[in-house]
Design goal:
The complex is a heterodimer.
Chain A lengths: L3 E6 L3 H12 L4 E4 L29 H14 L1 E3 L2 E8 L6 E7 L5 E12 L3 E3 L12 E3 H11 L6 E6 L4 H10 L3 E7 L14 H16 L4 E3 L1 E7 L6 E7 L5 E8 L2 E5 L2 E3 L2 H5 L4 E3 L5 E3 L12 E3 L8 H28 L19 E4 L3 E4 H20 L15 E3 L4 E2 H9 L5 H8 L12 H7 L17 H9 L3
Parallel strand pairs in A: 1-2, 1-6, 2-3, 6-19, 8-15, 9-10, 9-15, 10-11
Antiparallel strand pairs in A: 4-5, 5-6, 7-16, 12-13, 13-14, 17-18, 20-21, 22-23
Helix pairs in contact in A: 1-2, 1-7, 3-4, 4-5, 7-8, 9-10
Chain B lengths: L1 H4 L7 E5 L2 E5 L5 H7 L6 E2 L6 E2 L12 E4 L2 E5 L10 E3 L1
Parallel strand pairs in B: 1-7
Antiparallel strand pairs in B: 1-2, 3-4, 5-6, 5-7
The chains are: A alpha/beta, B alpha+beta.
The structure holds flavin-adenine dinucleotide and FE2/S2 (inorganic) cluster.
């Protein structure tokens, strides 16, 4: 007998919506998140000791999320500062064990058992290497955002924001509003990426317009087809080389810009290691990222395991929430029908009612007789189409490789320069795995989270789903205690 | 800055970073406090001795490692500072 019906890993928009939906449907739910507060990346909150009265200024839609979080806390167990490092199927079907360590300093092993699992672990920034990208003062775009949203620290005084896609805009707007001098915003792709797409209708345009307005008010120039192709400084960032790019991101001209901080991001990498551990089938998104494959009800290929939000494909907070809600409905319906089936005497013909009893009339029966509200499915379809349009409009183009010099570090942790990667390939390494074995990129502390995408591109393949038996760093002591007592 | 979110942070306290006092607003991470104090590089790499500080800001890159009260290899960007903390880089 499991302690919970559903364990949710991740307390961002996807996880909170999924946990709440499932709890409202009557499931016993536990939600675990490594952070000290619910919110994930988008709704990263200030500590209570900041007594912020206008925190909503930092996030669109915060009030709604706060209502969901409050409701969740009254209906489910919310386990914060719980870092999940592994999930496994314990016995038979529908008996999962979630291994976590609790506490930010005094680490304590915690095991949660549940009949079903929702993976809502979000994403991290996807940087590209360039000369000087490891100089202090160079931050990921998300890192700059996290400093602001979570600590009210402005990343720098004179800041350049660079990368591709819609994300640099809110980062730049936030920094400018918080008092930084944002010298310029650089978009490596063309200027019309967004406007060309019919999917970009209605609400999203309004949000984008809001950022554009904020940038205009602070006189921040937005330059397309330009990128930071090198960062310089003696021990700390003092200036960057900005390249004007051709369509493929090859540099056609350069200039120098003084700045003490660079916030740079070329998309996001979904965090999928727990799904890989659970044995879920994986696929690739349009942006090349390995993602968890899910069906129309957010079910993965492993019975009882669901995924929502960025792990199923990067699409932002709104899509994450909708996917979470769908997963919550699906988990509730699946568990209900499992209980229903188990209650039937052996030999009874197995049948799944197209509409579980008590289903409101406006709910459509999804595939396999699942009850998911039709409007949710439609919203997900619209938001996914939008996310795909963004991936198409803001791809990473191959010319970034030309920004590298032989000495440019590709792997920050193991300090592997580009020339070592090339040597490995000259020695016959034809894929990222053998490059890694020969030259060691991705073998250090971050386990390839920062360089994995770049190394795969350099090796000429799509990044593979990471096999990391331990998803979060833990001490050996916790590992020992856990292997002594597998329950 | 605080105007942006209507924040009224509680009284700051100091932590010791390699013996030097660094102010912290209660609730901030050690990494955020260092960065805010203008300390942007606090670790050097094993091989090249390259300076490092915050990069990802969310605990995935491990560039920001420090030792806190004797516990080695803590991610400064994640660890909320506490009064009396002694940080070594
Ligand atoms: C640093 C950063 C900043 C961002 N800022 C913005 C922004 O300001 N605006 C914007 O539109 N988009 C932002 N994004 C994009 C973001 O991915 C989406 O907006 C949105 O937050 C995705 O929602 P989600 O629920 O899928 O994941 P998230 O919001 O990322 O939530 C995932 C949660 O899972 C937890 N988690 C992950 N792994 C584990 C584990 N092993 N154990 C326990 N807990 C775990 C994390 O702590 C996190 O709270 C940011 C992304 C990053 C990486
Ligand atoms: S800054 Fe990346 S782990 Fe702390």
């Amino acid at each position: 007998m499991s302690a919970y019906d559903l364990a949710v890993v991740g307390g961002g928009p996807a996880g909170v919506a999924g946990a709440l939906t499932a709890a409202q449907a009557g499931l016993r739910v536990a939600l675990l998140d490594a952070a000290p507060r619910l919110g994930g990346q988008y709704f990263r909150r200030l500590p209570e000791t900041f007594h912020a009265t206008r925190e909503a200024a930092l996030h669109h839609g915060l009030d709604r999320f706060l209502r969901q979080s409050r409701a969740l806390r009254s209906l489910a167990d919310v386990l914060l500062e719980h870092r999940v490092w592994a999930v496994e199927r314990h016995g038979g079907l529908g008996d999962f064990v979630v291994h976590a360590v609790a506490g930010d300093r005094e680490e304590r092993p915690v095991t949660v058992r549940a009949s079903a699992l929702l993976i809502a672990t979000g994403a991290h920034d996807r940087p590209l290497p360039f000369p000087g990208w490891d100089l202090p003062g160079v931050l990921t775009a998300g890192g700059a955002q996290a400093l602001l949203k979570g600590n009210l620290v402005v990343a720098g005084r004179r800041v350049v924001v660079a990368g591709t896609g819609p994300f640099p805009l809110p980062v730049a707007a936030g920094l400018a509003r918080a008092g930084a001098r944002v010298v310029e915003v650089l978009e490596a792709n063309g200027p019309l990426g967004l406007a060309r797409h019919p999917a970009l209708a209605a609400s999203k345009l309004g949000e984008a317009a809001g950022y554009a307005l904020a940038l205009a008010r602070h006189r921040v120039p937005y330059r397309a087809r330009q990128a930071v192709v090198a960062a310089h400084g003696d021990g700390e960032l003092t200036h960057v080389t900005v390249g004007r790019l051709d369509r493929d991101w090859r540099v056609v001209a350069t200039r120098t810009v003084e700045c003490d901080t660079l916030a740079v991001g070329y998309g996001f990498v979904p965090q999928v290691e727990l799904a890989v551990q659970a044995g879920c089938a994986m696929g690739h998104d349009l942006d090349g990222s390995p993602v968890v494959s899910v069906d129309a009800a957010q079910r993965t290929s492993v019975a009882g395991v669901y995924a929502a939000g960025e792990p199923t494909g990067v699409g932002g907070a709104e899509l994450a929430e909708v996917e979470g809600r769908i997963a919550g409905h699906a988990a509730a319906a699946d568990l209900r029908s499992a209980v229903h089936l188990a209650a039937e005497p052996p030999g009874t013909a197995v049948h799944r009612p197209a509409e579980p009893p008590g289903t409101p009339a406006h709910w459509a029966a999804g595939p396999a007789g699942l009850a998911v509200p039709e409007p949710l499915l439609r919203r997900r379809a619209r938001l996914r189409a939008f996310a795909q349009a963004l991936h198409r409009a803001y791809p990473v183009r191959p010319g970034w490789r030309d920004w590298l010099t032989p000495a440019t570090l590709v792997c920050r942790c193991e300090e592997v320069p580009y020339e070592a990667v090339r040597e490995a390939m000259d020695l016959g390494a034809t894929d990222a795995r053998s490059v890694k074995l020969l030259a060691r990129p991705g073998m250090g502390w971050c386990q390839g989270r920062m360089c994995g995408y770049a190394v795969a591109c350099l090796a000429g393949e799509l990044p593979q789903a990471p096999r990391r038996p331990i998803a979060q760093p833990i001490t050996l002591g916790s590992l020992e205690r856990m292997t002594d007592d597998p329950s | 800055m605080n105007d942006l979110a209507g924040a009224r942070p509680e009284q700051p306290f100091d932590i010791l970073v390699d013996g030097r006092a660094v102010p912290v607003l209660p609730g901030q991470t050690i990494g955020a406090a260092l960065h805010a104090a203008g300390i942007r590089a606090w670790r050097t790499t094993r091989f090249g001795g390259r300076p490092r500080g915050l990069f990802c800001g969310i605990g995935v890159c491990f560039d920001c490692l420090v030792s806190v009260n004797g516990a080695p290899e803590q991610r400064a960007c994640l660890l909320q500072a506490r009064p009396g903390d002694e940080v070594r880089t």
